[in-house]
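Dear H.,

Thanks for agreeing to be a second pair of eyes. The structure we're designing against is below in token form, covering all 123 positions.
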């Protein structure tokens, strides 16, 4: 799910002719385009969706929304590691099934090479 999340502008600069900012979303920092809000300043809050600041927001509303998102686990869903999230949903210990060696945790665990049917699929 993609959310429009409130964030606080930490700094503003330019990248390839585009006005950009580093924005803090309750501890997670991301680069955000400010082209839709050209007068947004450092310290102000904005609603950000898919990397674009879309609307200015007052600090109290931003803090309340971030607290609610955090309580509901939505910040982790939005900004967390997708591998860890997939592993958690699957009930796996490791987000990467091959983390402990060749094919560890996968359907071909312990095999030195991919099975014949997998090799044939590449031809």
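And this is the sequence the design step returned. I haven't edited it by hand at all.
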């Amino acid at each position: 799910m993609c959310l429009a999340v409130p964030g606080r502008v930490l700094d503003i600069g330019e990248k390839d002719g585009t006005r950009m900012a580093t924005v803090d979303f309750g501890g997670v920092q991301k680069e955000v385009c400010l082209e839709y809000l050209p007068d947004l300043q450092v310290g102000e809050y904005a609603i950000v969706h898919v990397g674009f600041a879309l609307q200015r927001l007052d600090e109290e509303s931003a803090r309340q929304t971030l607290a609610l998102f955090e309580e509901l686990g939505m910040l982790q869903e939005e900004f967390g590691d997708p591998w860890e999230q997939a592993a958690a949903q699957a009930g796996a210990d490791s987000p990467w099934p091959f983390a402990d060696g060749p094919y560890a945790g996968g359907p071909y665990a312990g095999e030195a090479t991919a099975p014949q049917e997998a090799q044939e699929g590449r031809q």
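Two observations from my side: The two ends are 37 Å apart (CA to CA). The chain is about 30% helix and 30% strand.

Warmly,
E.
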